[in-house]
Design goal:
The protein folds into three domains: 304 residues, Glycoside hydrolase, family 3, N-terminal domain (TIM Barrel); 214 residues, Glycoside hydrolase family 3 C-terminal domain (Rossmann fold); 127 residues, Immunoglobulins (Immunoglobulin-like, Sandwich). α5 crosses α6 and α5 packs antiparallel against α12. 62% of the residues are buried. The strands form seven sheets. A six-stranded mixed β-sheet has the order 1-2-3-4-6-9. A six-stranded mixed β-sheet has the order 10-17-16-13-11-12, sandwiched between helices. The protein has a four-stranded antiparallel β-sheet with strand order 21-20-25-26, with no helix packed on it. It contains 18 helices and 26 strands. The chain is of the alpha/beta class. It binds 1-deoxynojirimycin (NOJ). 1-deoxynojirimycin binds next to loops. This is beta-glucosidase.
């Protein structure tokens, strides 16, 4: 029943979603399974166990490695971080904008292209499984350390981002690993705490983007450290049943590193691969699988069929991506400085720069502060304007906040081959423009004010950083952050730096590089702050991406992938010291602000442009197949009843310059549905439109997009009654309203 409900919906959704590139899609596992089963027949129990057990941390070149099986030409599989590039490779791969920054582009083609380029680089240096992308943490807690590795805290947008990234990565031949499944929403106590979410919340928020990952063919899923409703995720039959039953996942489940805690139970529940193959705790160096798994099979406590299933899944993923054909061997060693790998960057810097610019969100722009037009002089203030003087990679796993924040810290990082800081890119344009640049490259308020007092325009650079909990980074003296942020303030006394500059310069432009929302109230209270430019961790081309926006080489088009509140307590969530009861349920981020009637500072989906757009011509069409209507919807295929509705409208560029608009569709469920968020994102499009021109936009709604998760029947249900349809420029700037 369970299986059927999801499988039917998912299969149809995939068929309907206009031709995924080869190597993705749910339907094409068959041939890979045939090959995997034939290969399996040639393996001994000890070979099989070698394929499912890591060779211990630092036991191979990658962060995760398994034993080879030469009889079937199977290599020591290389699993390597990270979601934004290839970790531990020195200089020869691209340091991409982080997930949250790409999320802010809302751009399917950029997501896909980044995935493809990143996947090609992973393959180019011999990585078999790239450990990304990230849909968990989803980001329900604004302070949580690793939110920036994922795309947004909206499940719909996250799902599309997972879809596009995975299709891109796997079209280049690398196996994607959707992580971390599931409820891994904070760093504090992540290895012990339990996330206790109700079934509806689990499905409508947290499982949702993983469903998109799986039915777009993700080869693997990483189970998370935390417990889910009282059982460790990697040991939980329920968690594995969701993946392999409900979602009909055909690939393999790999543990997060040391997230396994038993030999038999993990195997029987459904874990398929353990990484890195050692348990550091009890006793040190002990290994749950390896010989212990062989013993467990021999004693009958783990069925042989379960081990065969593990191996079949792992081999099928490998065959399905064609990794049995001329796949490069591993060409780097993570543990010797990552030197010597071939340069596989190609011209990817261009794409990295495009994304760096398109992910920037213009929050405020008054008195025509931006774009800049050849100012006579400009002061650049703050250490975030420059590269860390000790070097972009000086802190291991980027575990410090010195200089420009272009990625967070932890395992979700890569080495910068180079890093263009704002100062570099602005200096280059200033030479052309004849602008005098005055730099104050510290966070000293005195020297910042001194620089700003001499310039026509002052740009203040502030940031906020976070990362994975195994590294603690100093925020302000005495205040360290072990992964999660302690608060939502700018780091290094950023508010005071802005105040000092704004006190002496009437055209103060604030540039923020942040892993997530920060509280901007003090900054916005400064009357001389004319503009606020908000960027995520934008990778190696950060400075050039910024310059493209502030000089008006293109219009800003990024929109917030989360809400910026007026105060931290306006969010309904916080890092918790013990287990997390998920009492907020469905009401996270804008779903909560809407429900509770709280006005945010900048709402989910918000972002300014250098031009303006108008919306018109709303039409809704619901294809009620249950009423015997057999006509498929436009854009769908004959027999396709998964796409159930369309919403169409027209966007017009009413300003003077070209610009891209991200139009958004929100749906409010009929009153017959159980209590639900007032509106939820269920569609978006990004259209580049010339001044005076219009474009027609069609949002296609899948059945799931109009459903709630019905717990008693364990299925998605379309409620009867009238749906509210909202189309607009953000979650609160609704331009067109209708019903369906
Ligand atoms: C632990 C992290 O949670 C995970 O994301 C990463 O892939 C592994 N370590 C390997 O570094």
């Amino acid at each position: 029943m369970l299986n059927l409900a999801w499988a039917t919906i998912l299969l149809l959704a995939d068929i309907a979603s206009a031709s995924p590139p080869s190597g993705s899609g749910l339907g094409d596992w068959g041939p890979a399974y045939t090959k995997a089963k034939a290969a399996l027949a040639k393996l001994s129990l000890s070979d099989k166990v070698g394929l499912v057990t890591g060779v211990t941390w630092e036991g191979g070149s990658c962060v995760g490695n398994t034993s080879p099986a030469s009889k079937i030409g199977y290599p020591s599989l290389c699993l390597q971080d990270s979601p934004l590039g290839v970790r531990f490779v020195n200089g020869s791969t691209t340091a991409w904008p982080a997930g949250i920054h790409v999320g802010a582009t809302w751009d399917r083609s950029l997501l896909n292209a980044r995935g493809a380029a990143m996947g090609a680089e992973s393959k180019g240096v011999g990585v078999n499984v790239q450990l990304g992308p990230v849909a968990g943490p989803l980001g329900k807690i604004a302070e949580a350390g690793r939110n920036w590795e994922g795309f947004t805290n909206d499940p719909y947008l996250s799902g599309i981002a997972m879809q596009q990234t995975i299709r891109g990565m796997q079209s280049s031949g690398v196996q994607a690993c959707a992580k971390h499944f599931i409820l891994n929403e904070q760093e504090l106590n992540r290895q012990s705490m339990s996330g206790n979410a109700d079934d509806r919340t689990l499905h409508e928020l947290y499982i949702w983007p993983f469903a998109d990952a799986i039915y777009n063919g993700a080869a693997s899923v990483m189970c998370s450290y935390n417990q889910v409703n009282g059982t460790f995720a990697c040991e939980s039959e329920k968690v594995m049943q969701i993946l392999k039953g409900e979602l009909n996942f055909q690939g393999f489940v790999v543990s997060d590193w040391n997230a396994q805690s038993s030999t038999v139970n993990s195997a029987v529940s459904g874990l398929d691969m353990t990484m890195p193959g050692s348990d550091f705790n009890s006793p040190p160096g002990s290994i749950y699988w390896g010989q212990n798994l062989i013993n467990a099979v021999n004693s009958g406590s783990v069925p042989q069929s379960r081990v065969d299933d593990m191996v079949t899944r792992i081999l099928a993923s490998w065959y399905r991506l064609g990794q049995d054909q001329n796949y490069p061997p591993v060409l780097f060693n993570s543990f010797n400085g990552g030197n010597g790998a071939p340069d596989v960057k190609g011209d990817h810097g261009t794409l990295a720069r495009t994304i760096a610019g398109d992910g920037i969100v213009l929050l405020k722009n008054s008195k025509n502060a931006l774009p800049l037009s050849k100012p006579k002089s400009i002061a650049l203030v703050g250490q975030d304007a420059i590269v860390n003087p000790a070097g972009a990679n000086a802190c291991s796993d980027r575990g410090c906040d010195t200089g420009l924040m272009a990625m967070g810290w932890g395992s979700g990082t890569s080495e910068f081959p180079y890093l263009v800081a704002p100062y570099d890119a602005i200096s280059a344009q200033s030479k052309i423009d004849g602008t005098k640049v005055i730099l104050s490259s510290t966070d000293s308020t005195a020297s910042g004010a001194q620089a700003a007092a001499q310039a026509d325009v002052a740009m203040v650079f502030i940031n906020a950083d976070s990362g994975e909990g195994y590294i603690s980074v100093q925020n302000v003296p005495g205040d360290t952050s072990a992964g999660d942020r302690n608060n939502l303030n700018a780091w290094h006394n950023g508010d005071q730096l802005v105040a000092a500059v704004a006190a002496v310069n009437k055209n103060t432009i604030v540039v923020v590089h942040s892993v997530g929302p920060i509280i901007l109230e003090n900054i916005l209270a400064q009357p001389n702050v004319t503009a606020v430019v908000f960027s995520g961790p934008a990778g190696e081309e950060s400075g050039n991406g910024l310059a493209d926006i502030i000089y008006g080489r293109k219009s800003p088009s990024g929109k917030l992938p989360y809400t910026i509140a007026k105060k931290a307590t306006d969010y309904n969530t916080a890092v918790v010291p013990g287990n997390d009861p998920y009492t907020e349920g469905l009401f996270i981020d804008y779903r909560h602000f809407d429900q509770a009637g709280i006005t945010p500072r900048y709402e989910f989906g918000y972002g300014l442009s250098y031009t303006t757009f108008s919306y018109s011509n709303l039409k809704t069409n619901f294809y009620d197949h249950s009423a015997g209507n057999t006509k498929p919807i436009p854009g769908g295929k004959q027999g396709d009843f998964d796409n159930v509705a369309t919403v169409t409208m027209t966007v017009t560029n009413t300003g003077k310059v070209a610009g891209a608009e991200i139009s958004q569709l929100y749906i409010g469920l009929p009153s017959s549905a159980p209590t639900s968020p007032p509106k939820q994102l269920r569609g978006f499009h990004k259209n580049l439109i010339q001044p005076g021109k219009s474009q027609d936009v069609t949002f296609i709604l899948r059945r799931r997009d109009l459903s709630y998760w019905d717990v008693p029947s364990q299925s998605w249900k379309v409620p009867s009654g009238t749906f509210n349809v909202y189309v607009g420029a953000s979650s609160r700037d609704i331009r067109l309203k209708g019903t369906m």
